[in-house]
Design goal:
Blueprint: E1 4-9, E2 16-21, H1 25-32, H2 37-46, E3 49-53, E4 56-61, H3 63-81, H4 88-97, H5 105-115, H6 141-152, E5 155-159, H7 166-179, E6 185-190, H8 206-224, H9 227-235, E7 239-243, E8 255-259, H10 267-274, E9 282-287, H11 301-309, E10 315-319, H12 329-340
Parallel strand pairs: 5-9, 5-10, 6-7, 6-8, 8-9
Antiparallel strand pairs: 1-2, 2-4, 3-4
Length: 342
Amino acid sequence: MVTNVLTSQSESSDILETVVEFPDNFLLIDLCGEYDRNLAEIEKKLGVQILRRGNQLAVIGDPEQAKEARDVLLALYQRLEEGRTVEHGDVDRELRMGAGGSADRGAGDDAAADGGDQLEMFKGGRVEIKTRKKPVEPRTDAQKAYVQALFANELAFGIGPAGTGKTYLAVAVGVSMFIEGHVDRIILSRPAVEAGEKLGYLPGDMKDKVDPYMQPLYDALNDFFPAKQVAKLIEEKRIEIAPLAFMRGRTLANAFVVLDEAQNATSMQMKMFLTRLGEGSRMVITGDRSQIDLPRGVTSGLHDAERLLKDIPKIAFNYFTSKDVVRHPLVAAIIEAYDADV
């Protein structure tokens, strides 16, 4: 635990200095990061100066920003004390959300009650999704609310620009529910819509032609399961990755089902997919309304689903903006530039 926090502010100055003492030097090294990169990130985002003095960190800057930086440091150190790591994504999350996150707890409480074994995930205001390889934590308030909605609702939508974690978090929740035994299968699907090249021009059989469209789903799975286990589960049909067209005529019971890139589903395809929902299943629809690759004049099924289902109870709609982008910072700037040009 942190043993001492000293704060001083000159009456004639708007500069606040907060000194935090950390008892474990080894944890302090991890807190600072390689070449103090974690401290540099906090300094850059909050406009403060952080000085290291032995086992102390002095935070100097505007009072409000200095206090926020201090709270971020304390939260990250507590994380290390709990035996967890501090990586770039963890620093970014604390800077975006503050210690413990600030999303509404009500949805989390409902989700925890409904998820049974996920109760631990929502304690202390923190959300942590357990997978085989690593825990996954939302990095923005919108992401946190989205994860809570996935556990609380049998049908949920995640709508927003690229890089906001819509699909990644949905697959993580699916893996978590699969591991805990809440579902028997994970089914991941995408419309195989061409964006500049035709399926028939690609080499190989049907699987070879379709797999490039499904690759982002494979990538997410490989982040949460060891590669050999992914291959085994796919072979056993406990994980299925298939184009949207392959869903016709099926009833998907006791499964966690994700439809990715749903903006490229037609209205009829969307209706077909939504009506596959069976007993004991969860369904997540993700999409980006700004990246529709359907032929001109064809209405996106995601647009129709929003319009028709928005007032139905127990169907959750979660929205993301460029502020929720967790890829390279330039991605958010690019999205904002294109949005401003519309």
